[in-house]
Amino acid sequence: MIDKDCLFCKILRGEIPCAKIYETAAVLAFLDIAPIRPGHALVIPKVHAPSLWELPADIGGDLVAALQVVGRAVREATGATGINVVMNNGASAGQLVLHAHFHVIPRVEGDGLSPWQGAPYADTMAMTRMAESIRIRI
Ligand code: 5GP
Ligand code: ZN
């Protein structure tokens, strides 16, 4: 349930302080110590799970509910007009802390934090093959 060496578990146990925003029986939200923009918050489950795949699926409702509450409050407090909810899974995706968490990042038009650029598939067949390759693994 809790990992003794995990940074976010230490925050959950109160061994490391945090700027707490919101808490329920299942979820804790606090400010990121190195925000992409002021108000950048983290929403974490109270159960230790290194990434998305170890999370108990039935915690999804609690996490979504918390993201809605925290996302709205961050938006209002910062004057943001949009919010990115981001979850990094794996080092190649930028995950540094191996306790599953969601970033809540306030956004305004022209803030320079444009998301990555999309590019179309070579053709419809390439897209169809990719969809099939994913579908057969579900
Ligand atoms: P990741 O890269 O794993 O998706 O995000 C981890 C986040 O945790 C980073 O944005 C980082 O700034 C934040 N972080 C790292 N250590 C601490 C800490 O001790 N306290 C808080 N509040 N945030 C932290
Ligand atoms: Zn943990």
What are the main properties of this structure?
28% helix; binds guanosine-5'-monophosphate; five-stranded antiparallel sheet; 138 residues; single chain; binds zinc ion
- What is the helix fraction of residues, given as a range? 25-40%
CATH homology-level superfamily: HIT-like
Overall pLDDT score: 96
SS-derived structural category: alpha+beta
Describe this structure in words.
A motif (Histidine triad motif) lies at residues 99-103. One of its GO terms (molecular function) is catalytic activity. One of its GO terms (biological process) is nucleotide metabolic process. The model has no long low-confidence stretch (mean pLDDT 96). This protein has a five-stranded antiparallel β-sheet with strand order 1-2-3-5-4, with helices on one face. It is an alpha+beta fold and 138 residues long. The protein has one domain: 2-Layer Sandwich (HIT family, subunit A), CATH 3.30.428.10. The protein has helices at 7-13, 60-78, 124-135, and strands at 20-23, 27-31, 41-45, 82-86, 102-107. It is globular, with a radius of gyration of 17 Å. Bound molecules: guanosine-5'-monophosphate and zinc ion (ZN). The site of guanosine-5'-monophosphate (5GP) has 13 residues, from β2.
